[in-house]
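Board notes (copied after class):
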Amino acid sequence: MELQKETISSSSSHGRWYGDACGAAFAMELLGERWTLLVLRELMLGPRRFSGLRASLPGISAKVLTERLERLERAGLLVRTMLPPPASMQAYELTEWGRETEPIMQAMGRWAVRSPEHDPTLPLTPVAAMLALRTMLRPERAAGLALNADFAFGHERFAARLADGSLHVVRAQAPTPGAELAIGAATPGAMLLWIFGKRPLEEVSRETGLVVEGDRDLAERFAAAFALPPRIGARAAPSKS
């Protein structure tokens, strides 16, 4: 029995940090290393090549990215796949279990942005911006609203469908057929100033180059369907007594 126990331990990552049977502890062992959640985030809307992941996460080294991808593959969170023609190149894609981390990220995101220390002016990748829309959609505000939208940020494009109080998003290679709204900017931060910052569209467009094509009333209804949660009170200063 002792030999069997050692064999099981050597083939599993469970217990490598905490030696704790708690599921939350094991989740941290799977997801808690630096960059791991961001790698999963960048794969959430579809497969990516290694070079694309590096470009989206410029702070990660090729060595660390390779290590994270290998560990996630061993854990069953992603698989290697081949992109269809004309690309026909190896890419990484989340498994169904890997995609189940999105609600975890959403809960963490909604919780963390309530901190007064959260800085919304820091850079955000296009994938992160689209996932932020999925996270911060208020279903009650989107009631009765259904539309197709095209999003383009630099060379990255996404097709989205808002219906029944949820937002479905996938990567796209061409403009979305039949889209009622087309939203484009050099970086997604411009869009978020309008949608999350609730600044007037004309003002944001003038300052950032944000382009929103389609019915203006529909665009404003779309933007109004998203909202950040309220921030917690600022931390009180320590008493001097």
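Comment from the instructor: Residues 180 and 236 are 47 Å apart (CA to CA). The mean pLDDT is 91.
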